[in-house]
């Protein structure tokens, strides 16, 4: 019987062995396939130079020359944005010192589009608000011009537009690397992604404690977890983490992995925004670049790696202090600090900022940069890493904007009142400063480009142009009396003036400077509406196919950016120049990808547009914006107020020589703010512009125009010294014939 069973037992054993072998083969194939899949994920998310080549956005360079209107404090502010460190001794590269009315700067080298400027030490001398001399310290020779390298205002990944302050491997301070590896991963340069002894020690410690009290992850494992995995604690996740860590070590160098970790590690939380990377954390917590931090500050940042929430120095200062001192003790025990240095650094205060600023100092401007990049460059061009994006952003104008806005809004005592402001050079289209809300460093809804609000009387300058282009002049007589218009739905529209009064007959100029509604509605329904729609279409701002009479009073909605584009044409004598945040884009090798040329198109007649400009000067001298005359004196300024129904929106758009500024005020829920254009946005505009270096606006000389004094009420020719006279331009052949009585 036993012999009969042997073949059966042998067959069974053979089948079992085959089954086990088959299962092992299947498992090996499955594991290999899974590793291929993980490797594919790594290839998608992690490339060797992803963190080493960020795209950086630069402000305009600051050209320093004798005679420049710039004070010492403003130059110090610009240097601080460039992360230059103020010192009291001889400055090293990236440092400066103040000596009386002078500043010594050891400038970093920089590659401009037209030249490479080497590292240089200069001295800038001031007298009041003016640069008097620039001295080359090496040669003791005065310089006619020195171009200060531009401030980096943003750094991000082009692929996902995620804002980061990124460092290349060469930019990482060795002191940070030493502290990080000593505390987090001593065997980083020896292991292949995982460190079995550390894992074993952590396992024993956790078993003894009955809970997870110690981790055994290497830096590479932590990087894999941050990049690809969820924060959940599970056996499967730890296996994936180990596999990915080994694959990373196989594919990339230790320097690349370390740079990626230093740029990727999560360190802080700001509202709903996670803050990654030591460089950004340093900038936000200490307002200093990473290479300027002392050992105690670096120790604090490294200590925060273990628990960003537990060791947040702003919300948990005591825990953060204890954690920092523990890191310092580890450095002392490992010979990185002697006893004297250890005792000194452990007694230092945390010295962090009281409230975290925005991740990006100028989020609204950067938002527009990214939008315009997409519109002007191909996806293939923008997918390249290491782009250098040069903008006309002016940090000093932006600071004046922010300070003026904060000061003006404080006077209204309306905490929920929102604002947007756009400042541009209307000649070349450079967009120099912008805010998208009253909290200027908050990267939320960008009202300057996204908020579409009725513009009210800001439409009237373009309507005035449409009327002048027809048969009218600034001296034409108009009637301010009631108007009733039956609309297509059968309803009667009865517009009114803002002051609810009627003012009888007057010149078109007088009606415009006082922003009376009824005369313009009457003129609009007799042909002006169609011309207005056509002129809006010329600048791509006609929003609706069906044109309603209410367009004459600015019921069309625009953003502050769009309003600025409309007034750019008006201020620039009818020449349309697209407002832009981009001057040039170059690749990592400083090769220009493509330039956005200075494009200017003649869309409107200069002679008629000059007449509109003269009327806008009248608004600021004697009309709804005469507050400017009181505040700026004899400075010639031009602008227009705008107020919408129930005082829900307050607008002012005004310009000096070259500088155009648009201000909008309103509530996000569209409730009344009880501020007109004159009492609201105009006051904000004045507060901002009072801080700028502005110059009086000058009308262009045009041979086709004649200037005559007319009576502002009856439109007849009169003498300049008459009580109601105003000097206005006229196209030849359209000068009034009638003469007025001089009072």
Give a description of the structure:
It contains 22 helices and 32 strands. With 743 residues, the chain is α+β, with helices and mostly antiparallel strands. Strands 3-4-5-8-9-10 form a 6-stranded mixed β-sheet, with helices on one face. Helix 3 (174-184) crosses helix 9, helix 5 (219-228) packs across helix 7 and helix 16 crosses helix 18 (517-538). The longest helix is centred in the N-terminal third of the chain and has 44 residues, at 2-45. The termini are far apart.
Summarize this structure briefly.
This protein is 38% helix and 18% strand. The protein is of the alpha+beta class and 743 residues long.
Main attributes of the structure:
single chain; 743 residues; alpha+beta; Penicillin-binding protein 1b fold; Penicillin binding protein transpeptidase fold; Beta-lactamase; six-stranded mixed β-sheet; five-stranded mixed β-sheet; 22 helices; 18% strand
